[in-house]
Amino acid sequence: METAAGMGTEAGATPEARARYAARRDRLRGLMAERGLDALLVSRAANRFYLSGFELHDPQCNESAGSLVITSDGRDWLATDARYTDAAARLWDEERIYKYGSDAAGELAGLLRRSGGRAGFEAKGVSFAFGRELMARAGRFPVLVAADGLVERLREIKDADEVAAMERSFALNHRLLRHVEEGLARGDWRGREERELAWEVERFFRENGAEGLAFASIVAAGPNGALPHAIPGATRIPAEGPVLVDVGCRVDAYCSDQTRTFWAGEKPSKEFARTLSLVREAQAAAIDFMKPGVALADVYAAALKVFKGAGVEKHFTHGLGHGVGLETHEAPSLSPRATGALLPGMTVTVEPGLYYPEWGGVRWEHTVLVTADGVRTF
Question: Is the pTM of this model over 0.85?
Answer without folding.
Answer: yes
